[in-house]
Amino acid sequence: MTGKIYPVSEAWSSSAYIDENKYRALYEQSVSDPEGFWGEQAARIDWIKPFTKVKNTSYDPHNVSIKWYEDGSLNVAANCIDRHLETRGDQVAIIWEGDEPNLDLKVTYRELHDRVCRFANVLKKHGVKKGDRVTIYLPMIPEAAYAMLACARIGAIHSVVFGGFSPDSLASRIVDCDSSVVITADEGVRGGRKVPLKANADKALEKCPSVERVLVVKRTNGTVGWTPGRDYWLAEEMESVSADCPPEEINAEDPLFILYTSGSTGQPKGVLHTSGGYLVYASLTHQYIFDYKDGDIYWCTADVGWVTGHSYILYGPLANGATTVMFEGVPNYPTAARFWDVIDKHQVNTFYTAPTAIRALMGAGDELVKKTSRKSLKLLGSVGEPINPEAWEWYYHVVGEERCPIVDTWWQTETGGILISALPGAIALKPGSATLPFFGVKPALVTPDGQPIEGAGEGNLVITDSWPGQMRSVYKDHTRFVQTYFSAYPGTYFTGDGCRRDEDGYYWITGRVDDVINVAGHRMGTAEVESALVAHSKVAEAACVGYPHSLKGQGIYVYVTLMEGIEPTEALRTELRNWVRQEIGPIATPDLIQFAPGLPKTRSGKIMRRILRKIAEDDFSNLGDTSTLAEPGVVSDLIENRMNKA
Ligand code: 6R9
């Protein structure tokens, strides 16, 4: 089953940085001599103190340690801003497109420098020092970029929390990394609706005694609560400080940011990324995978609350002196032509979005696309989940008019940057495949019990050697880092993804093999949804699984056992849905709730998720052996009352 192949066009192979021969040669060098390869590549960024040691990494489960360029020093913000001032001070760094189509703003590198320096001085004025954690809870406004870069400038560690998360989710992330400063806005605006960020933050802060300062961006001028002495308007503070802020010297292995992400167990973990290797990797992948050339307008539609926003709206593009678009809104406001309108408005050359958005816009019909020009487009990208071939073909034929290659980029919060993707001038495309590994990346497949799979086959995806963008630890919990990623298949990094490799060596990600589900490109731990549900007074027990969803990729299916005497009603379904929404955030809202008098369990009391998954998928022909169940009868009841009857 190889499917269609779209060869590299002559125009692309002759104009791109990397053609097929170069890819083969450089890939070979990168994996046979990582020290040499990454030592050379590091010259793309400015070092304050040059490194003498390139790579010092160990995947040995007894001693996992990942260090790159460890004796070098640099400043990430200076690399993203200051070093461009001489050659491109007046070039636009950020094109901000507001939620309303008539609202936009262009920020040049010189202006970015001024804002970031002032912001950094505001942080200093409020006591933030190198190594301190700063939580950023902002909408997609330029201040989010200023805030992140201001932290980087002074060596503070930012933790960006997606603006769609609830007060509780925000609170647990603030507490985990012990932030003393929170940066938020009065309100966010998305799709014409307001999001009460300051009110959410106030609620969260009731549980966060460590927070001493809240800096508030005025976005809507909405009414907000105020705690004098703790809360400050950012704009006033920016006026009160100097615009001069020399960048701190930061060791390559000093932390740049923490980003919380869902795992298969427990609370979200604080993925820790450091400075030197991360920046080299983000910038190199951005240049080659998007074939970024001077003057290109590049647009990644992610939110800065996710890793894609960190690496491919901010750090990668700005390190490369690019013009990066930052979009506050949503794909279907005011109409489902918004993306295509914005592409025309700003003459976007490279467009990078998620399959869930592509599927939704495909559903809105071709007319909305065809009435726009899109002639500026050269290259399309996809990220966040496997893209189904139908959506791929539509993206390719209708949006890109068969002119634009699609780079399907596979990576994770943990990997810092893209690991498997086509290079548009080098690698022929197969719809639905992320294609081949990037330089320095050594993927391998193993059977569930750890036997290596050679050649074509399907198994669990591991990476057998480190790359500079790799996460360094789970914040304050190195043991969890080792357990989660390095103990299942010793000597390798375990990705949590299943994957097939075809006869051409192409990789086809099949989705998560752990209890993480991918809802509209957002990672959700089933354990988080379950713990939110059991916190409800009427719920005795809950189990959460994913099921195929035509727009979101996966939907959230929960089985709920109610407390004795509680009636399963439609009203209670709504109540539980709203409850989870409130506890975690809208992205965790269950799509289907099945009331179940009992859940299938082994005799030792473990919930048999495999069975629940099958039922949610409406595929109960192959439930496997149910004889080990404590009460085999519950299964027929679950099937009978399933919510997903085809
Ligand atoms: C960047 C990002 C990571 C998980 C990952 C995988 C899925 C991401 C994908 C993809 C197939 C792609 N994933 N990109 N699956 N093809 N191109 O999304 O990070 O939020 O940490 O999610 O997303 O399952 O393990 P993150």
TrEMBL record:
This is Acetyl-coenzyme A synthetase. It catalyses: acetate + ATP + CoA = acetyl-CoA + AMP + diphosphate. Acetylated. Deacetylation by the SIR2-homolog deacetylase activates the enzyme. Residues 23-80 form the Acetyl-coenzyme A synthetase N-terminal domain. The modification N6-acetyllysine is found at K606. It comes from Rhodomicrobium udaipurense. One of its GO terms (cellular component) is cytosol. The gene is acs. GO terms for molecular function: acetate-CoA ligase activity; AMP binding; ATP binding; metal ion binding. GO terms for biological process: acetyl-CoA biosynthetic process from acetate. The keyword Magnesium applies.
